[in-house]
Each structure stands twice: as structure tokens, then as C-alpha cells.
Amino acid sequence: MGWNDLIGQADAVASVRRAAETGQGLAHSWLITGPPGSGRSTLAYAFASALLARPGQEEATDAQVDARTHPDLSVLSTEKVVITIDEVRKLVTASQFSPSVGRYRVIVIEDADRMPERTSNVLLKALEEPPERTIWILCAPSEADLLPTIRSRVRSVRLGIPTVAEVAELIARRENVPADVAARAAREAQSHIGMARRLATDDEARRRRSSTLDLALGLRSVPGAVRAAAELLEVAGADASAITEERDHRERDEVLRSLGIEPGGTVPPALRSQLKNLEEDQKRRATRSLRDGIDRILVDLLSLYRDILLLQLGLDLDRAQLVNLAILDKLEAAAATCSAPQTLATLDALAEARERITGNVAPALALEAALITAVRSRPSSGAAA
């Protein structure tokens, strides 16, 4: 991936590219912010590649950065709920070494918002006195997700949300899918590039999303809402497993091979601790993946009720603005069963559920509360689910 894979971010690309290629405005610490799917990581690695490459070595450097194998690139891309203090300490140590083959030593931290305060303070010390040829690149959804002391020591680059047309063009080109499939995926992903790719290329991901919307549209009673919440948790779990299961098996096989153990062979007691550490990391990754899956479900439900609200308000609505245009008939039927204030109350409940889950409220309880509000917004709530 490189500059050409960044869509709708011309100003941000121009800023960091000029800094990397000319040295003008090049800071030792950068913070790339933007909504999920806007291309934060893509920009970070394109920037890193430009910083690392020496004249005539651009293509080889790009390949090494894409593979995360460049000797002067250190990456922290956690798939756990939080970034640990030990992980950041390792990066701080690596940042002290001079570059070996590149122009700079580059340290990239994806999801920097997942650092607890104590961990952030370890990073802060490294940002205060960075070595002359070390560049830090942090990625987070917004500046507010990091400590003020860290924000004051970085140069911020803000990404916007690319248009649906831009994302569709990228997906069609990169994944070689029909234009109409890419357009629907981009619209339903709400311009989230990673999710648009999954929806365009994964039939099961499309089925799970469709099932989520049908469950919400079919609510008729409070008991039905409770059952729907349980089903949505199962959908989120299946989605999380689809993302992590294959990788978990591959990682375990690689560890066994590195230990000289054939697949299916007995692991000697002296080596079991290494497998245990891997399993613990995979459990933490599964926890994060499940939370992300639940959040994706809530985002899809928010898009559903947002569409319903737009139909209820009318206001010379261009139907192409609807996220879930493919189920327009169902949206129109749902819009006729309740009022705009009731739909707005459901949107508020779903947004509150996202906040509650972020605050470690049990996802089942948060989903149940939100879906019960959705039932109450429908005149037919006394019917069987």
C-alpha cells in the first residue's frame, strides 16, 4: 500500500509527503487521527516508507514496510483490549538505536488510544527527548483520545471521511469486484474502507449484516428484544471467530514448527509456557475482536434507524443518501409504524449502548436495553416476536 491507496485525503498526504521528501516541517513525533476506516494506518506506513527509503531504494523499501520487515521500522499493532506498558517499553528501547540502513528509525503505534495513562506516561518520556533520527508516528481516532501532555508533543494530521464513490472506486480497483457490488459495500460500510472490503468480498459478512437488520426490523415484544440481543451477540461472536480463528491456528502451527514439534505432536513440559503465552494473547485478541464485532452491529443498527428517521422527516430526501438503500421497501414499512421522535429515542438508546459497552457494561445488558427501546417505538409491540 502507498500514497495511491489513500483516497479523499489530499491535504494530509501532501503535508506528510512534503515533510518526508524535503524535510520541511518534519517533526520527531506525529499523530494521525481520523474516523475508523479513513486510512490512518495506510497513511502511517506510506509516510514511514517515504521516511525510510534512500534514493533508488523506494520499491524495495515499500515491500519491506508492507511486510513489516524493514530493520529500521518498529510497529506496535495491538489486537488486545489495551496496549501494555511492557510493549511500549520495548518500543522506547528500540527508538534509541540509530538507523541501520534507512534515513531514519521509524516507530509506528496503531490504536494509540488503547494506551492506559500509566503506559502513556512511559511513551511521553520518549517523546520529550527523542534521538535525532527517530520519528514516532501514532494513530488514533481523535486527539482527545490521548493525554494532553502527549498531544502537546506531536504534530497532528487529521483525516476526513472519504466519499462513498471514492471508497467504491478503490474497492473495485483493489479487489477486482463489480462496480455495483463495490458501491453497495461502500455505502453500507459508511465509507469504512476495511469494512467495505469485507462486505464486497465475503458472502458470509454480508449475510451476517443482513441478519442483524432483519432481527431489528422484526422486533415485536420485550421478550423478543431479549432474544434478539442474544442472537446479535451470537452474530458478533461468529464474526469475531471468522476474523481470528484461521489466524489463531496458523500462529499455533508456526510456534510448534519453531519449537521443532510436528502438528499433533506432544509438547514437552518445558515448552508449554510458550504455547500458554500465545494462547493468552489469542484470548485477549478474541475479546477485542468480539467487542469490535458488537460495535459494528451497533453501527449497522444506527444506520438502519437513521435511514428510517430520514424517511419519516422527508424534507425532499434523495433516496441515494440512505445507507441501506437495498432494503428500501423494509425501511418504508418500518417508518410507517412509528413517529420520528420514537425513532430518535431508539437512536439515542443505541448510541448509549455503545458508550456503556466501552465502559465495560455487559454487552448483553446494553443490547437488551437498546432493543427494548426499539420495541417501545413500535405500535405493534404487544404482538408476539
Automatic annotation (TrEMBL):
Pfam families: DNA_pol3_delta2
Keywords: Nucleotidyltransferase, Transferase
EC class of the enzyme, as a word: transferase
SUPFAM superfamilies cross-referenced by the UniProt entry: P-loop containing nucleoside triphosphate hydrolases, post-AAA+ oligomerization domain-like
Domain of life per record: Bacteria
Gene Ontology BP term (one): DNA-templated DNA replication
PANTHER family in the record: DNA POLYMERASE III SUBUNIT DELTA (PTHR11669:SF8), REPLICATION FACTOR C / DNA POLYMERASE III GAMMA-TAU SUBUNIT (PTHR11669)
Protein name from the UniProt record: DNA polymerase III subunit delta
